[in-house]
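*** Fold description ***
***
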Amino acid sequence: MASRTHDTDVLIIGWGLSGLVAAGEALTAGRRVTIIDQEPRSNLGGQAWWSFGGLFLVDSPEQRRMGIHDSLELATQDWFGNAGFDRPEDEWPRRWATAYLEFAAGEKRSWLRERGVGFFPVVGWAERGGSGAIGPGNSVPRFHITWGTGPGIVAPFISAVEQAESEGRATVLPRHRVTELLVDAGTVTGARGDMLADSAEPRGSSSSREVVADFEIRAEATIVASGGIGGNHDLVRAAWPERLGTPPQHMLTGVPAYVDGSMHAVAEAAGARLINGDRMWHYVEGITNWDPVWPAHGIRILPGPSSLWLDATGRRLPVPLYPGFDTLGTLAHLRTTGHDHSWFITSLKIVEKEFALSGSEQNPDLTGKDVKLLVKSRLAKGPTGPVQAFLDEGEDFIVEDDLESLLERMARMPGGDALDVERARQEVLARDREVGNEFTKDAQLSMLRSMRAYRGDRLIRTAAPHRLQDPSAGPMIAVKLHVLTRKSLGGIQTDLDGRALDAAGAPVPGLYAAGEASGFGGGGVHGYRALEGTFLGGCLFSGRQAGRAAAGITSATGRPR
């Protein structure tokens, strides 16, 4: 096989959001940058391109216009109550959390606005918690949807790289798979690996791993921005912690197959320390994609708070495990049931108001910045087009006019033999009896009514309380839900400059990490739980820090190096 060599100032492994941001910072500093990735160039932008584009901001103009009173102090209370930092190795993640919160409450929004990034005016309330003021969850709505979703957030950073590429200051090399970091006298000096055969596969699709040559790239600084492990179910199961029960035998995949975790071992072999590998973030509202892009492709329902949630046996989930409240708490509970699926029982009225789907391709109005389509799809009667497609084509959806027919079909679904039909019937009947009164002991209904005091929820996110069996709200709908892999919350431990640290806590010379590969900063900025809108934000912030430091111009404090 042929060998190819290349020299650069800054080498970035991975062209997702954090890698692109890091590249932009290094290019602004006047450095020559080379970006490599194992996928075809059609995947430039990585996982972020597929995202809903949610960003965590604190005390933003959008929040204030919606009557939301937020502050850095409240956000810090939420973050640290959510994270549950409890390990000696959490020292750097704690520092990253503090720095990121200051960024989210400070220049993050203006920094993005300078790059042309705008936001949908209604702020979402994701991960609501419900377990107390210092427990998990967001005390106030903070989920800012990027106008343009994932493609909108990556666009300015792709543009900057492509402009530099046209000027000869940046080099983008697809189909380059790193197998080893070069180390000379303890300093990382670049990378070597395999050149893969050209591929014309569309974005997100699996590509071949045929090796046609090898390569070696020498660099003054190397940034690992290769993502996490969510596309590799074997790695997910191997890292699965006892506190979350046994790993599912059946899971859907919420990220492209190339999110394979392969660079973790490569970085570790070069001296980097991996921490918090047992911390992970997977969703329990996954549905099988009727039109898949990658293997086992799943989509997450972003649910409003009204659907009745039952486990596989038909028992209602306990307080406060309602749709959209506590992702990891719900995952941990469902893993105790002995089954890999659960159920929503809901109505068309709820679905048309409360069911959003995660992903840029599932939100053509927001992604395409199409105001007319947005008004038609979000405010008009009926589900959005993508949701209707799942109602028509999705294998996990059952639509019936009455409860008995619905339960009968649920029992006939794969895994439906676990369903106690009588228990499920009683759960629906009991819930519906409570709706007839303004006074109720049903905490979910009480929280639903409370949430509708927020006009953002009342306008586009929550249906008025009603009986699930109300014919005027029908038909009734059942949705079979699966565990959907998503994010690694641990990774390469880094200091606030994004420098990879070794087992003794000292920087590995020449090596940096950013994005999910670094646990979004420090080896796990989220601790055990994420607040939503913080994954893209973590990529932005950690990529910025690593890019500036690798360029040799600033430290985390902003002082010249």
